[in-house]
Specification:
This protein has about 475 residues and is α/β, with parallel strands linked by helices. Helix content is about 40%, strand content about 15%. It is built from 14 helices and 14 strands. The relative contact order is 0.12.
Length: about 475
Amino acid sequence: MQLDQPRSGTVTLAQRLYAPLRDWIQRGELTAGEALPSSRRLARALGIGRNTVLAAMDRLVAEGFVEARQGSGLRVAELGPLPVAPPAATAFDAPPLSDRGQRLLDFCAMVSRGHRAFVPGVPALDLLPRERWQRLLRRHRQRSPTDWLDYRSQGGLPALKAALCDYLRLSRSVRCRPEQILITQGAQQGFELIARLLADAGDTAWLEEPGYGGVQACFAMAGLAMQPVPVDAAGLDPERAAGPSPRLIYVTPSHQYPLGVTLSLHRRLALLKAAERHGAWLIEDDYDSEFRYTSAPLASLQGLAEGAPVIYVGTFSKVLYPGLRLGYLVLPEGLVEVFRRANARLHREGQYVVQAALAEFIEAGDFARHVARMRGVYRQRQVWLRQALAPAVVQGLDLSSGHAGMHLVARLDSLDEERRLVEAGDAAGVTLSPLSRYYLGPARQPGLVLGYAGSDEAEIAHAGGWLSRAWLDLQSR
């Protein structure tokens, strides 16, 4: 017997002896009742220490592959037929996914990630004030109390909820107290809690058409009947909704995702009335309202009426960085305790050091300064993108207004044109997100969702110039 060479430096001699012995037993090459050599004999034959052999044998005994019999040493245990691992070259025949799992995968189509330009929703990661942020993290990590290491059920660090409350009341006219804020691990976790706690499988949810794939996937997994409601230049139109009364109504009123339109005041009031009439909850997703270029950020839908059935959802992924994994819900008073308890049970709480650093980042004015700086940066990056696409725009390429947000939409004439551009982008290493992918229904409008916030001037010029030439080439055929 010879020991296999280790695949890594972390594999011990005892493990290298244990593994082949176990495999021989599983394959039946060492039969039930067969005696194993003594530890001294194996040690001499292999040129290793006896303690190493004993460690391997002890593990085989502990796992039931080998039995220690009085007076007869170690013998292979009677195990019956054992499953044999297939050769490495043989593909594992995995069991089929559940219907629910398969449905989730339908919402998991990933865009290619070649050139960074055009990836939607990615902020300028290179411009985060990292030194200041790291100093805050280090300080709060050193000062953190022991109870932050335990299970928590406060709904988030009180200091962060207080800082957020002040910010939202001033910048977004949100009506809230700190106690109404629940800190989550991103907005997606907030949507999951809403779907689980406020709707049953089979209930109807109104969603914008086209709309955000993350909430579509979440509601699909909750078994909700998703009713797409068309979006026009004034936003979601409740008068065009069909089917049963909704239990949930999801909107992105400040900057509709992905089309970029703003929900008009008339539609906002109509939605509030519709929610009251149907006994539904309005979910206001305010994902990037800080980045508005032609006016100050708009007041929230939640702040329009006292006691309105609105749950306000926010995230730091777009303003700071996605890896932060922090979002929040602003809940009506009657839902606060329910959501806090459910979140503590389903997801636990954590990252209190990060939450403390973020609270100080907001209180010290660093957050507001970063938002103001990024607003100027993203405005300029949109200008660069428009300049790169100018040759195509002159020839008829239709771009969205770009009055806010971190992306533009290029409208196309056909789904075939959209498909051909996406395929060409894949071949050229340029990310293109097809607009048609954001639709639930069969009536899909062709286009491209072009993120620009996370790319510098050179990247935007390269990708934008390529897209302009590719589009013009298609028009000439």
